[in-house]
Amino acid sequence: MSPARPDQSPVTRLAPSPTGALHLGNARTFLVNWLLARQHGWRVILRIEDLDTPRVKPGMIERTIETLGWLGLDWDDGPLVQSHDLEPYRSAMRRLAERGLVYPCTLTRREIESAVSAPNEGDHEIRFDASLRPAEIPRCFDGEATNWRLIVEDGRVSLDDAFRGRVDLDIAASVGDFVVWTKRGCPSYQLAVVVDDARQGVTEIVRGDDLLDSAGRQALLYRALGLGKPPRCCHLPLVRGDDGRRLAKRHGDTRIDHYREMGVPSGRVLALLARWCGVDAGDSVSARDLIGRVSFDTIPREDITFRAEDDRWLTDGV
Ligand code: GLU
Questions:
Q1: Residues 123, 44 share a domain
Q2: Does 160 share its domain with 257?
Q3: Is the peptide bond before 79 cis (omega within 30 degrees of 0)?
Q4: Which of 112, 148, 206, 208 allows an S-S link to 33, with CB 3.0 to 4.6 Å?
Q5: Is there a domain that residue 200 lies in?
Q6: Cβ(17) to ligand 1 under 6 A?
Q7: Chain centroid offset of residue 22 CA
Q8: pLDDT of 193-231, one tens digit each?
């Protein structure tokens, strides 16, 4: 599983989770990822992240791919659909187990919670305290129907984020030993991403900054698996509703497909996404015409707010 880089050109990935349809927020991130790739000559891989998510409804994968195409985004390789072959993830688990870095864990949420004094407010993830580790760490991965956790040693992880600069994370203090294999019999998001980024030779990651904390966990997994340096990452501010929360159903139907079904042309959707990247593209623009116009200098440093007038502007005249 050493990084496969037949040529030395940088590689990035578009990695949608086909669980909910693509909305204006994640479409903006995909657009920026694609524009940077096309501007700088990175190879683009499409990867469908359908593991460790709520059930993927039939047809969702095809629909996600179709919607990216409607926006004018393309890719050079893929799609790789994670659920089609779990062997690479099992093999990573075997390697982690041989190194004594993972262990099975059957503790319930309540048991884990009671070991930490006060979980941070609003945390949906509870910290797993090192005192809860078993006394014996097995050297073989032999139970796929159990959660397995990675041993997280104390210490900080430093990331050099291409958009935010240096970021220091303390994974032991924030989440502790985190799950790398789930009792549903599949790798966790964290493990799947690392295995795939490594085997696909990914060198550039562009995604929303809700995943910044995950980048720290992924760096630890890179190290634990002996995969060398993790890809360069870039975490972009998110699009939020006017209540400050991450764009979601509660803010109305902001799915790309919703606007498409209403007859809004893709050029208009892209013009709004471009505006959210600091580029005035008028009423309509193609993805291709935006290449070279969006950069880290144009993208606002703060989160974007989706407002009712944005929705009105999109649907005006249809
Ligand atoms: N599949 C994730 C998402 O759609 C992206 C994961 C990643 O970029 O690492 O949010």
A1: no
A2: no
A3: yes
A4: 206
A5: no
A6: yes
A7: 13
A8: 999 999 999 999 999 999 999 999 999 999 999 999 999
312 C-alpha to ligand 1 centroid (Å): 29
- The pLDDT tens digits of the residues spanning 139-197 come to 999 989 999 999 999 999 999 999 999 999 999 999 999 999 999 999 999 999 999 99
User: Tokens at residue 31, please?
Assistant: 């657009």
> Which helix H or strand E contains 78, and what residues bound it?
strand 77-81
Mean pLDDT estimate for the chain? 93
Q: Under a CB-based contact definition with an 8 Å cutoff, are residues 130 and 155 in contact?
A: no
| 18-27, 91-100, 162-171, range with the lowest pLDDT | 18-27
Q: Is the pTM of this model over 0.85?
A: yes
Mutate to test the pocket of ligand 1, among 26, 193, 232 (most ligand atoms within 8 A of CB): 193
What total number of domains does the chain contain? 2
Do 54 and 97 belong to one domain? Answer: no
For 244-284, how does the pLDDT look when each residue is reduced to its tens digit (9 = 90+)? 998 888 888 999 999 999 999 999 999 999 999 999 999 99
Would you say residue 218 lies in a domain? no
Alpha-carbon span 158 to 194, nearest angstrom = 17
Q: What's the alpha-carbon Rg for the chain, to the nearest Å?
A: 20
Q: Is the CB of 310 under 6 A from ligand 1?
A: no
Residues 77 and 91 in one domain: no
Structure tokens at 22: 């693509």
Residue 243 three-state SS? coil
| 196 CB within 6 A, ligand 1 | no
